[in-house]
Amino acid sequence: MAEPKAPAPGRFPCTVGDRPSPRRLVSAYLSTRSLSICLAFRRPGGLREFLTLVAEEILRRQEERAIRRGLSTLTPNQRESVVLAFYGGLTYPPVAARLGIGLPAVKARIRSGLAQLKVALA
Questions:
Q1: Host H or E run for residue 19
Q2: d(CA 12, CA 63)
Q3: CB 58 within 8 A of CB 51
């Protein structure tokens, strides 16, 4: 049985064919990312900047969950109208056209849906 060859100089020691293994690539990425975070802490204000970013992300996720819970309290018609208008970026006439209903109905759905969301998010 032939003995495995040593990797060529400058090559990854753990390869799959001619490419580095996925495990090795992930390990290299995580090591590089960890080093950059550690170096960021050494900069003046680096730790404060990092903690601010983490706090902002936590708040964003909490708000997102609260909005999802609030949207789940709406009727399907209200939810569809509100999502198209606020997340789809559509004005009332395109929402009415897309749903195939009249403009007054869209306005009523969105108005009542927003009122219900206000109560759910309070």
A1: strand 19-20
A2: 44
A3: no
Going from N- to C-terminal start, the domains of the chain cover 18-61, 73-122
CATH class of the region 73-122: mainly alpha
* pLDDT single digits (tens) 61-101: 999 999 999 999 999 999 999 999 998 999 999 999 999 99
Length in residues, the chain: 122
82 contacts 113 by C-beta, under 8 angstroms: yes
Question: Contact at 8 Å (CB) between 46 and 40?
Answer: yes
* Dihedral Cα 85, 91, 96, 97, nearest 10 deg: -110
Q: Which tens digits make up the pLDDT trace of 1-25?
A: 555 555 555 555 555 566 777 888 8
DSSP string, 47-113: HHHHHHHHHHHHHHHHHHHHHHHHHHTS-HHHHHHHIIIIIS---HHHHHHHHTS-HHHHHHHHHHH
| Three-state secondary structure call for residue 15 | strand
